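Changelog-linked ticket: cytidine-5'-monophosphate example.
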Amino acid sequence: MLTGNRILLIVTGGIAAYKTLELIRRLKERNAAVRCVLTRAGAQFVTPLSLAAISGDAVYDDLFSLTAEAEMGHIELSRDADLLVVAPATADILAKMAAGIADDLATTVLLATDKPVLVAPAMNVRMWEHPATRANIETLAARGVMRAGPGVGDMACGEFGEGRMAEPDEILGAIEAFFRGEGAAVTPSGGAPGQKRPLAGRRALVTSGPTHEAIDPVRYIANRSSGKQGHAIARALAGMGADTTLVSGPTGLADPPGMTVVHVESACDMLDACTQALPVDIAVCAAAVSDWRAADEAAQKIKKNGGGPPRLELTENPDILLTLARADNMRPGLLVGFAAETEKVIAHAKAKRKKKGVDWILANDVSPGTGTFGGDRNVIHLIDDSGVEDWPAMSKDGVARRLAERIADHIAAKS
Ligand code: C5P
């Protein structure tokens, strides 16, 4: 049953939209709450009235409707669901999602949402195989967008091949798997259509975000890490089929679907969660772990008592990367660390690699002005046994994909 689960179903313009009516019926049978957004093209295939009748809710189709905005704004609509499902998802909406275009209610909701998204692509086989669609699917997969189908078969246009929207039962199965917390089982795929899942059967651990080190019940020591890079790496590894555990410090990011996410606050908790996730084939430590914590966490809020500021005694935190490197028979098969540096980036990163006993170090410059911390782009130098590889400036999603591909190649070469 899907009792209490709220689904926002976005219906775009494809002949397969008629199957979406059946999907809504099945979702309602399982007690899910379904609310629909219909695009202008979608309305050529199904009517707002039929969607409203089957879903039992209002149908939203206009970005600038004053009545709808008064009742529920598009931002609220995008957040007031547990899962967004785009079915059918045309080549056009996939392209708009990949590019971040928001030119109608459906695309605006998809850009504004902080909730997981599942797409059920439906299009002609040539459109599906076009390099533009392949690139868009790859981009969306790396961002954690889940996918159900498409299947292979006869098409409405008379051709045969991959591109048919998954059957309502398959999409329903994917939705149920998502709500059971088995996002990875949702016919997703890490890359382009038809691409294999090269990390299937491998276990991966990723740390991400900052840590918060409590001073007293209300104050803590933290840093500016956003978690964007670590989360992107976890998504890319899971997308390639790895059974992934993401150990995340406090971030403002939504949990990526299709993996186990363990939330922690402090470095000590992060270390515990990491050791519990062992053994793994791959570990990527992307978290900005606080080097120090308060030696004694005050049980009560520290008060101003007129005697001047309190003395804050610090003690060193455990080094998670170093601990994993020294985990004897539990050492991850491939251990990857980051070196965020503000000067002599390569030299410092090389020294760090040796000192911590790490296989690969991804060095990046985080000096003020680079925009790396909190930003969306990163410039990486990968240091391994054979030397330094300079990567061009790219998005954090791009870095994640390239790293995941390099990891997959490395593992394939070793086995
Ligand atoms: O020593 P530094 O913090 O620069 O090392 C960076 C690398 O070490 C990153 O991969 C980071 O995730 C990891 N690290 C860790 N535990 C710490 C400190 C850093 O895992 N306590």
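Closing comment: Example verified and attached. Residues 6-185 form a domain with the Rossmann fold fold (CATH 3.40.50.1950). The chain has two domains: 6-185, 203-414.
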